Automatic annotation (TrEMBL):
One MF annotation (Gene Ontology) recorded for this entry: 5'-3' DNA exonuclease activity
SUPFAM superfamilies for the chain: Metallo-hydrolase/oxidoreductase
Organism (species): Haladaptatus litoreus
Name recorded for this polypeptide: Putative mRNA 3-end processing factor
Gene3D superfamilies: 3.40.50.12650, Ribonuclease Z/Hydroxyacylglutathione hydrolase-like
Lineage: Archaea, Methanobacteriati, Methanobacteriota, Stenosarchaea group, Halobacteria
Gene Ontology BP annotations: double-strand break repair via nonhomologous end joining; interstrand cross-link repair
InterPro entries according to UniProt: RibonucZ/Hydroxyglut_hydro (IPR036866)
Superkingdom of the source species: Archaea
């Protein structure tokens, strides 16, 4: 029997099992009996390292590299917990939790069902074949019908074609240090561009990912003595796009700034980021893929988080015979929603 009050949003997602154990997922200061980490993006990563954590080996290595002051992550397992590829970024995992009372929970974490670059997408059909998911806890970053993306091959081709067509101009591509940066590097390798530069932070993660995946990024280190010219590409962390050193590069080389996101469907993304060019490229499911995932898993109850959580929950309740609620911090009872 499903406990309607078992799932809450506090410091991370918390799930109270009938054993008395608390599962804590993606907490900044994990304080549960069973600690889970979905992936190593900063907004899901701890600030205070847990003693033992359930995560992929690659996520453990990436987390340790990104939280060097906290030391190495110690991985563990638990008989009630299974992880499967989430398809979001290298090392990302969705988490299946089987409570002894018969309730099975699935926490997707950030996820994508598309096979992209070196990643296998989240396979809802495979999960549904093995598990009867009662409670789904899903991210809903693009949980509105406005956000439906073209086929992956089409999105990637647009970017590679643009890199070729603009060959005579140096370009600066902005993406998250983990995931998006590596995708952009691989797209550059498929273009006619000759030199690819990245920062130390990106190179450090590249090296870890190269050891885990059959991939080589072939990027050079960018420093203040590097001069960009025709055929050159510089990949920078997304949060640097408005910094003065970037303006200096643009002014001195005529470089073009390009942003990449599912939010690029909207013109506002281009203007907010002060980009010259923008392209749709996402590590998350679009609306139609979120719907397909719910339809395939057919849970009794859905909790939504991130992005258009309220809107997606409302859509599920009106279109599917499913109880759906968006998670609100520190609410633990359904009648509080």
């Amino acid at each position: 029997m499903t406990n309607a009050n078992a799932v809450s949003l506090r410091d991370g997602i918390q799930i109270e099992l009938t054993t008395g154990e608390t599962v804590v997922i993606d907490a900044t200061k994990p304080a549960g009996d069973i600690v889970v980490l979905s992936h190593a993006h900063g907004d899901h990563l701890y600030t205070q390292a847990p003693t033992d954590v359930i995560c992929s080996n690659l996520t453990a290595r990436l987390a340790s590299a990104r939280r060097e002051d906290e030391g190495l992550v110690s991985r563990t397992t638990h008989p009630a917990v299974t992880q499967v590829p989430a398809g979001h970024v290298p090392g990302s995992r969705a988490t299946i939790i089987e409570d002894p009372n018969g309730t099975t929970y699935l926490h997707t974490g950030d996820f994508s069902t598309r096979n992209r670059f070196t990643l296998d997408g989240f396979d809802a059909e495979a999960v549904a074949t093995t598990y009867d998911i009662d409670v789904l806890i899903t991210e809903t970053t693009y949980g509105k019908p406005d956000y439906v993306f073209a086929d992956q091959a089409v999105l990637e081709r647009r970017i590679v074609d643009w890199l070729n067509e603009s060959y005579d101009t140096p370009v600066i591509l902005f993406g998250y240090t983990l995931g998006r940066a590596q995708e952009l590097e691989l797209l550059v390798s498929r273009s006619d561009r000759e030199r690819l530069f990245v920062t130390d932070a990106i190179r450090k993660l590249n090296a870890i990912i190269e050891e885990s995946h059959d991939v080589a990024f072939d990027a050079e280190h960018y420093d203040r003595d590097t001069t960009l010219g025709a055929g050159d590409v510089l990949v920078l962390p997304a949060q640097t796009n408005k910094l003065s050193f970037v303006d200096h590069i643009v002014e001195n080389t005529g470089a073009v700034k390009a942003g990449f996101s599912g939010w690029a469907i909207e013109d506002a993304f281009k203007y907010r980021g002060e980009y010259h060019e923008t392209f749709v490229l996402s590590d998350h499911c679009d609306f139609s893929e979120l719907i397909a995932t719910v339809d395939t898993l057919h849970p009794d109850r859905v909790y939504t988080q991130h992005g258009f959580a309220d809107e997606f929950a409302t859509h599920l309740e009106s279109e599917f015979d499913i109880v759906a609620r968006s998670l609100k911090k520190n609410q633990s009872s359904l009648d509080q929603f």
